[in-house]
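Limitations
The C-alpha cells in this dataset are predictions for the assembled complex, not deposited experimental models. Users should treat interface geometry with appropriate caution, especially where small molecules or nucleic acid strands are included. An illustrative entry is reproduced here so readers can see what is and is not provided.
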Amino acid sequence: MAFRPLLLATVLSATISGTVSAKNDLETINRIRDEGLYRSQVMHTLQHLTDRIGPRLTGSPQMQQASAWTVQQLKDWGLENVHLEGFAFGRGWSYDSAYVQMQSPRKAPLSALPVAWTPGTNGSIEGDVVFLDAVTESELEKYRGKLAGKIVMLSEPEEIEEPKPELFKRYTSEDLGKMKNLDLKRPASNAHGAPDAIAQGRKRLAFRDAVSTFLKQENAKAALYRSSRDGGLIRVFGHDHTVGKTFPIPALVLAAEHYQLLLRFIEQGETPRIAMSVDARFHDEDHNTYNTIAEIPGTDKNAEIVMIGAHLDSWHASTGGVDNAAGVAATMEAMRILKAIGVKPKRTIRIGLWSGEEQGLYGSRAYVEQHLASRPKPSDPAERELKPWYWTSPGFPISKKPDYDRFSVYFNMDNGSGKFRGIYTENNIAVKPIFAEWFAPLSDLTEGIVNTNATGGTDHESFDNVGLPGFQFVQDPLDYMPRLHHTHIDSFDHVLPDDMRQASVMLATFAYKAAMADKRMPRKPMPTEPSELLQQLEKEKAEKRQRAKERKALSELPL
Amino acid sequence: MAFRPLLLATVLSATISGTVSAKNDLETINRIRDEGLYRSQVMHTLQHLTDRIGPRLTGSPQMQQASAWTVQQLKDWGLENVHLEGFAFGRGWSYDSAYVQMQSPRKAPLSALPVAWTPGTNGSIEGDVVFLDAVTESELEKYRGKLAGKIVMLSEPEEIEEPKPELFKRYTSEDLGKMKNLDLKRPASNAHGAPDAIAQGRKRLAFRDAVSTFLKQENAKAALYRSSRDGGLIRVFGHDHTVGKTFPIPALVLAAEHYQLLLRFIEQGETPRIAMSVDARFHDEDHNTYNTIAEIPGTDKNAEIVMIGAHLDSWHASTGGVDNAAGVAATMEAMRILKAIGVKPKRTIRIGLWSGEEQGLYGSRAYVEQHLASRPKPSDPAERELKPWYWTSPGFPISKKPDYDRFSVYFNMDNGSGKFRGIYTENNIAVKPIFAEWFAPLSDLTEGIVNTNATGGTDHESFDNVGLPGFQFVQDPLDYMPRLHHTHIDSFDHVLPDDMRQASVMLATFAYKAAMADKRMPRKPMPTEPSELLQQLEKEKAEKRQRAKERKALSELPL
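Predicted assembly:
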C-alpha cells in the first residue's frame, strides 16, 4: 500500500492544474465506464473468436476466417479505414482430428495432439515405439538402420515433479508494493535475446534440423514429444512453417503422464506399440498472413497515432482463450466503447490485431517495419535463421519512416484475462507521472501500479525495439502459466468476465487519454549500438561466468 | 507446535516404565526403518500395479489379474495363508479405447472416457447432440419421440469457476496444531449417511433409473456427462453393475471444457454433431470379485488378529496410482518389511486387499460380515437399494462372530501418497496415549498428531461400523482431491516415492507394535440403536432446519 500516497498526490496536482479539461475528461470516462462495465459485449466477442471460429493458428484457414470476421465486426461498429495488411509468413496448416491408442503391452487411449506444421498420417498407422537417446549428430548414427517404420520419442525423459502449490494467483498488496522498484538485474529491455539464449537457440535449431533429416532418411513413421506441462495438459508448439523446411513425418505432443508411461515400459525392456490417426494438412494457396487494422480518425491531430492491439493468432491445441482471444476481445471492445459513446479524439486511435505473434512477433514487426521504422537484420546469417526474439542485436542504424515522429504510443494486451493492476513503463521514467494521473479516476477499479521494469515476450517489443513507446499492463497472473498457456484447455471457459470488462475500460481510457493529451507520449533515449567498451565488458563478464561454471563443476567431482 | 510437549512427556513415561521391552522394540524399529527406508521396494510394487496391470475396476479382467498377482507376490515374499476370498458383486466390464470427435459446427477432437458398466459403440457412431433439460420424470415426457438416434447430454450445465488457488498442500504446523481438538460439529462416526444424503441419494437413483429406461425406449444413441473436475481432467464414475440393471446405451464423461462448449453451441441454437467410437464390453463369466488375504502368523497369541489393508480396485480412467495403488503398495511393503527382517509377532499380522471399495466398500464389508460381525440391512427396502454408505442406520443387533473378540485393530491406507503426519482415532480416546507412544521413536519421520475426530469414506468404516477399532492416518492432502481423485491422470507419476517409503515404515511399525502390545487395542462403546428421545430430537432439529430454510428463501424475495 506504499504506493497510494504517491497516486493521491498526483491526482490532486492534476486536478488543480487543469480543472476544466479534467472535468470534461471525467465525464467522458464516466461514459466509457458506463458502456464498458454495464453494456459490455466483450464476452460475446470472445465467444465468437473461441467457440465459433476455434483455434487461429497463423496461416490456417481459421486464422483467415478470424481476420475476415474482425474486419467485418469493426466495420459494423462504425470504425474507419478497416483493412487487412498482409506479410509473408510461410505454409498454412490445420488439423481436424488426432487419436493415439496404446496397443501393447496393454490397451489404453493416450492423450495427444499434433505438432503444428507436421503432416497427417493419411489414415491409421501403427508401429513400435523407440526412444531416440541422442543429443548430438554423431549420436544419431547409433540409430542408423533401426528406425524404419518406428514411432520415435524425441523429448528428454523428465520425471514428473510435485506440482507448484499455487495454481491461481492474484497479486497481493505486498506483491504490488514491490513493483515500485526497478530491478537492476533485469535488462533495460526484453526486446533482445541474451547471448547465451542465442547460442542455445542456434544449437537446438541445428540439431532439430539434423533429427528431421535423419528421421526422413531412416523412414521413421512418426515422432512423439512430451507435453511441457503435466496434469494431462497437452501443451503444443510448431515445427518450421517455412516452405521447403516443414517436418517430414507426423509428430504429436503426448500428455506428460502418457509419454513417461511409454518411457518406463522401454526402460523395462518392453517395446510399446501404438496406433494413431491424425487428419492434418498444409495449405499453400496463400503464404501470406494478415494483420487487421482499423481506426477512429483524429480531429485536429489526425496524423498522429495512438494504438492499442493484441495478437489474433493462437496455437491450435484449444481455441486460444486467454492467449489471446482475451486481448483481442478487450482491445476490440475498447474501440467499440469509444465509438459507441461517440468520442472525437484529437489524435487517431488505431487498433492492430496481429498475426504470427506465436511464431516470433511477426505481425507487429511487419507493421512497425512497414509504417514506423526498420532495422537491418542481424549480420550473422545463422542468427538471422533464428526467430527474431533470439536475435542478440538487430542491426543499426534504425531507419525512421515518416509516421515515426507522428506516432505517440502503443498499448498491448497479451497476458491472459487477469485484471489490470498497473502498467510496465519499460524503463521509461518520463511516462510515470502521466500514467499515475490517468489511473487516478480509475482507482476504484485498479491499484494503478506504475512498474518501471521492462516486460517481454509479446508485440509491444516490436515498438520498443525501435525506440517507440510500447507498453503492457501489469495483470493478475491467475492460472495463465500454470495450466492455460498453449495448452488444450485454453478455451472460453477460463477467461474471467469481470476482469475482461475492467481491462476493456482501462484500454479505452488509456487510448482516449493518450489521444487527447497535449503532447505525444515522451520517449526513452533512442536505442544505439553498444559502445566497444560496453561490448568488451559484456564479453569479459560472459567469459568469467563460463570459467566460474567450469571451476564449480570441477569442485563438485568426488576427490 | 503445541502438541510437542505432550508427545515428549509420553515418551519419557513410556521409557521409564518399560526399559527392557522398549529397548527390544527400538532395535526392531531400527530394522524396520533400515529395510523400509533404504531397501524399499514400494515403488517397484506400485509400478507393477499401475503401469503393468493398469486400471483395476472391480470385476474387470485387470482386477482379477491384480488379485492373482498380489497372491503370487505375497507368497513369493514368504507370507502364509495367502488366498483370495470371493464375494458376489455383479457384472465385469472393461474398455480398450474411446474416441470422440466434434464434426460440426467445426471439427475438433474432444476429450472423453466411457462411464463404467455402459456398452461400447460397436464401431463408429455419429449423431446430433441434444441437452436433456429435465429434472423430474414428467419433464422427461417433453422429449418423447425426439431422442431417436441422438447423443444426449445428461449433466447439469455448470459454468467453470476460478480454480481454487491451492493445487498441492502439505499440512503446516498450524494445520496440525488445530487437529488436537475434537470437532463437535462432526458426527461420532462417518460410517452412516446423513438423513438428507439418503433422501437425495434415493431421489437421484430413482431419476437415473427413469432416464435410463427413457433413453432405451426412445432409442437414444449415446449419453454424455460432464467431468466433475475442469482443467481437462476426465473424472469418471460407473453406472449400475448389477446383472439386469446395467445402462442400456454407451455413455461417456467429457472434459468439462468440451461439455460446456457443446452446451454453449446448443444455447445459441446450433445442433452440434459428434462421432464416437468406444471399444468396451461386459464380462459375465464370474459375478464374484475377490479380496486378497495373507498373514505373518502370530506366536503365543496366534488367534488374535492385527490387520492392515487397502483397496486394490480402482476406477478405469487411469491406473489408480494414488487411489489406491499407493495404499496397496505401502501395506504390501509393510508386510514385506516385517517378513524380511524376520519378526515373530505375538499376534497374527494379516493384510487385506479389498475389492469393490469404489462401488460401496463392498470388499471390507464382506470380510467383516464373514469373519467378525454382521448387521441386518436397513429395514426400508428403498434404503437397501442404495450404496451402503447412504444407509442411515444399518440395523441392530450386531451379531458377533467368534473372531470378533480375538480382533485387535485394523489400519487402513486410502488417502493418496501423502506423508503420514498422524492418525485419526475415530472418537476413541483410549487409544490416544498408545498411539502417542508408538509415534515417539518415529518423531524424526512424523509429527505424530493424534486426531480424535472421525474420518470417513473408506474401508476402516466397515470395522468401525461394528464397533471394532479401524483407523486411518492423517496424510498430507497433496493434489489428491484437486486433480487426481478418479481422474485420467491418477497414474504412477503422481505418487511421491519418499512419502511412500515413510508410509510403509509407519504401517510396519504400527502393525508390529499392535501385534506385540500387552493388550488388544481398546475399543469404543459398542454402537447401539439411538434411543427414541434421541431420534425425536434429531427429527425436530431437521424440521427446524427445514423451516429456517423456507423462511430465509421467503425473506430473500424482493418486497
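Some entries come with short summary sentences. For this one: The longest helix of chain A spans residues 532-555.
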